[in-house]
UniProtKB/TrEMBL annotation:
Its main location: membrane. The keyword Transmembrane applies. Keywords: Ligase, Membrane, Transmembrane, Transmembrane helix. It comes from the Bacteria. The chain crosses the membrane at residues 34-52, 59-76, 82-101, 110-130, 145-165, 177-202, 222-248, 255-275, 349-370, 391-422. It comes from Alcaligenes aquatilis. One of its GO terms (molecular function) is ligase activity. Pfam families: Wzy_C (PF04932). This is O-antigen ligase domain-containing protein. It is found in: Membrane. It is a multi-pass membrane protein.
Length: 441
């Protein structure tokens, strides 16, 4: 009942803000204090709801239908029009492929489209529900606690139950209170989640600096998550984490904190070193040997674990049909080193987007990302501006180039959720400034 009332008041607030600004805002804040907490819990607890073969849905997907409803309710807004255009051109590429190549529209084409589009609705969750200073503080405080609870339990589980971390080419062990963790199959997917939690911990350390207890939680999060990222042996996540630590290190008055963090990260590695990490060591040695052999043979594709071949084939298919791409049907060509291509992706967000959608859909998709990121970074809060700029830079130059992270459900959902929160926060500040100017004039 409370949830229904909150949603009802929230919609009423959206339509009636200009007419009844003070009264509606009071009702909205009173009714929605617990909603940022719920959103945070669902977003940062990467439990698998449903899985089929190698495909799964995380807990955060429970919020997608609400984001979709908000998108439909406010269809005329700028961001909704961007997303409508993305969906339209994506569907058009699928339909044109059936007409040009006389192929049936397979369900996997539509599922591939849904998996790429659905995390975007997280933008509306952040934009609509976490749109006041109070709600933003509640959201980030809760996320801090949820992240610590998740990683602390996982660390104890790894040490006491599994007696160490087991890492293979496509799997990393572990569970959360006996429940399956989303992304354990497909290590980079889970490592991407590690990275975004680490980055938020750095952000929270600055953003929630008035609360000592929160800073302690942030410090613990940074230490534990760094250990998990290093143990994942994901080159993408490790490189992203190095830059996150570097940014933190370069901040004024943060040098001693960064050294302390590094010390505790080394300490925790030594503390758990007596457990069985032999499989992790063997995998590390195999990866090092792979790089050495690749360098000796001057084989970049071997060093990149086949990524270069995936890039080349996807780009070749895109340029063959630039306006419809692969029409969400996956690879249509054989790839050396891969006995089966079904379910494979280029492991590069830029290539994946244009390859799947085609030229027009890809341009609209990245134009939407550019506008959302630009609005978010234009924030008046210097801490938000600083850390969000860093987050966008690391994503644009590292994560997007090494993994199609915006197709990973929980990472992508949090990514768009943050853009929605900070875009709305920027708009609120802009509105207050314009109102103050009108009053002054």
């Amino acid at each position: 009942m409370d949830c229904y009332l909150c949603f009802q008041f929230s919609i009423f607030n959206f339509y009636s803000y200009k007419r009844y600004p003070k009264g509606i805002n009071v009702i909205f804040i009173k009714k929605s204090n617990y909603i940022p907490m719920l959103i945070s819990i669902l977003s940062f607890t990467p439990i698998t709801l449903i899985s089929y073969e190698q495909t799964g849905l995380p807990l955060s997907d429970l919020l997608i239908p609400i984001g979709f409803i908000i998108y439909l309710l406010f269809f005329y807004t700028q961001y909704s029009l961007y997303i409508s255009s993305i969906i339209f051109f994506s569907l058009l590429s699928i339909l044109l492929s059936s007409l040009i190549f006389q192929q049936e529209i397979f369900y996997r084409n539509l599922f591939s489209l849904i998996f790429l589009i659905k995390p975007i609705f997280g933008f509306f969750i952040g934009y609509f529900f976490i749109n006041t200073k109070n709600n933003i503080n509640i959201f980030f405080k809760t996320s801090n606690i949820v992240i610590l609870a998740f990683f602390a339990v996982c660390l104890l589980n790894i040490i006491t139950v599994h007696n160490g971390i087991v890492r293979s080419d496509s799997y990393i062990n572990g569970d959360f209170l006996g429940l399956p963790i989303f992304g354990t199959y497909g290590v980079n997917s889970l490592a991407a989640f590690y990275f975004i939690c680490l980055f938020l911990s750095f952000f929270n350390f600055d953003f929630l600096n008035e609360f000592k207890s929160q800073k302690i939680i942030c410090a613990l999060n940074i230490i534990i998550i760094t250990f998990f990222i290093v143990s994942s042996l994901s080159r993408m996540a490790i490189l992203g984490a190095l830059f996150a630590h570097l940014f933190f290190f370069l901040d004024r008055n943060q040098i001693y904190k960064s050294f302390s963090t590094l010390f505790f990260c080394i300490l925790i590695v030594f503390l758990v070193n007596h457990f069985d990490f032999s499989s992790l060591s063997n995998f590390t040695e195999a990866k090092i040997d792979q790089i050495k052999l690749g360098l000796e043979n001057k084989d970049l594709n071997y060093i990149s674990s086949g990524r270069v071949a995936l890039y080349y084939t996807a780009l070749n298919e895109f340029f063959t049909n630039p306006f419809i791409g692969s029409y969400f049907g996956g690879y249509n060509s054989e790839i050396s080193g891969f006995p089966e291509t079904q379910g494979l992706s280029p492991h590069n967000m830029y290539i994946t987007t244009f390859w799947k959608m085609g030229l027009i859909g890809g341009v609209v998709y990245f134009y939407f990302l550019y506008n959302a990121a630009k609005n978010s970074i234009s924030n008046d809060n210097l801490i938000i501006k600083k850390w969000l700029t860093r987050f966008i830079i690391i994503n644009a130059f590292i994560l997007f180039n090494l993994w199609d992270v915006l197709v990973i459900p929980n990472y992508a959902f949090i990514f768009f959720l943050l853009l929605g929160i900070f875009s709305k926060n920027h708009e609120n500040h802009t509105t207050k400034k314009s109102d103050a100017t009108r009053v002054f004039n």
